[in-house]
Request: fold
Amino acid sequence: AQSVTQLGSHVSVSEGALVLLRCNYSSSVPPYLFWYVQYPNQGLQLLLKYTTGATLVKGINGFEAEFKKSETSFHLTKPSAHMSDAAEYFCAVSHILTGGGNKLTFGTGTQLKVEL
Amino acid sequence: KAGVTQTPRYLIKTRGQQVTLSCSPISGHRSVSWYQQTPGQGLQFLFEYFSETQRNKGNFPGRFSGRQFSNSRSEMNVSTLELGDSALYLCASSGTGTEIEQYFGPGTRLTVT
Reply:
């Protein structure tokens, strides 16, 4: 079974500081990995994805993540935090199902707070 | 391209009632998945529809059901509502072929009293 662990349910950074949100996965097959962001009272917005190929993946809003197979990690980073980055972030692994299609298994989320 | 839309955005129901939620996927997308989000259980997969057929199902009781229409729009139904069904219900669509990313709608916030 595939699973995702997000370390730190709450992370606080100063505006302009580095953002680092941690995600570790468990998968018996090469994983497809995603980061989503959720703003209050909204759905999930796809930030970036890793499928195959380049292990450093760039996404929207200046975020990027690096797939490290040896560490089973897919941490999300942004060099300089902005107040608008305050939101909840979810790491997810895609599980290809026997009937076709896929489902996402999510981590428990990390609430990012950005302080002045 | 318009995104995934869900209606209604908010619902208040009483225990024992039933409810129907609607989801319109991104134009051209044929797969629609449903997820339940609660503070206690997080995000959990309910089911997935593709070409009007339920292709996959999560671990939820039979009170949760769904369907998909020929235009790919999907509905989910919850019968005999329980307090624990209060949640944000999210719909996601994905394209065909090799696309695996799912695009989410804004969700329907269901409150059961």
User: Anything to note?
Assistant: Chain B has no helices and eleven strands. Chain B touches chain A at residues 4, 6, 31, 33, 35, 42-43, 45, 48, 50, 55-56, 58, 90, 92, 94, 100-107, 109 (CB under 8 Å).
